[in-house]
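Follow-up to my post from last week.
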Amino acid sequence: MSKQTIPAGYKQTEIGVIPEDWNVKKIGEFTDCTAGGTPSTSISSYWGGNNPWMSSGELHLKRVFDVSERITNEGLSNSSTKYVPSESVLMGLAGQGKTRGTVAISKIDLCTNQSIAAIFPSSKHSTEYLFYNLDYRYEELRSLSTGDGGRGGLNLKIIRSLSLPYPSLEEQTTIANALSDVDGLLAELEKLIVKKQAIKTATMQQLLTGKTRLPQFAHHPDGTKKAQKQTELGPIPEDWKVKTVYELAENQKPQFDDGDWIVVVK
DNA sequence: ATACGTTCCATTGTCATACT
DNA sequence: AGTATGACAATGGAACGTAT
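User reply:
Got it. Predicted complex:
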């Protein structure tokens, strides 16, 4: 790429144009990471117990407050899994599917399987900032995988050598907070959507069964309220009918030369 | 020709193990 | 200890076979 104009107050680095007072650091320069393991599944005394053990499928939780599996102390000491602290960034290492490159944050101390790398928290970086940076770089992370084709994986060496823009800890925290605020707003919106969907479901139940009539259909011309009648589908308004879909389709059947037909429901 | 149930196969995630 | 890879299980969808 040819020389481009760099805005005042910015500088060119190997990872792109960033503010002058930011640095570029590799993950291995400010913290370390480790992978986990799986206690032998054929030894039942390794399973159960009190130690949370996370499989890579649970990375989609994004913020991991609990996991579904538990292992015993015996399982913990007889496998290569180990406790990683709360506030670690967890990254999927293996898998052809979407797990590889997916990141999450542990919100409890937990153990993981060998397909998860845990990047430890440190006093030099913001876990949330690192999480957002890596989450944003999902496609890039996937392209970094070793090996050819689907089976490739990330490994600890690749993670340690990942470079990222590195502002002061205070700025990292502030950036992460801003993003977290947006996440909060999105979560609120999602809650609202769920609520509206519940209202819609309830409304469908009322309107499609005739339990509640829209005002202009609820009364006879003389002002008396329309009654209900009993049918095989339950009580429905006295002026409604019960018909099979087949009956409706027969009536709607358009005549095409080739014999095909469609039903348009409005 | 259609409806339905079954089988097959690709994808993905996971575990075990050999290798460095 | 960390990584690569063979093996396998779970899943879902496509393809196929059969009865009507």
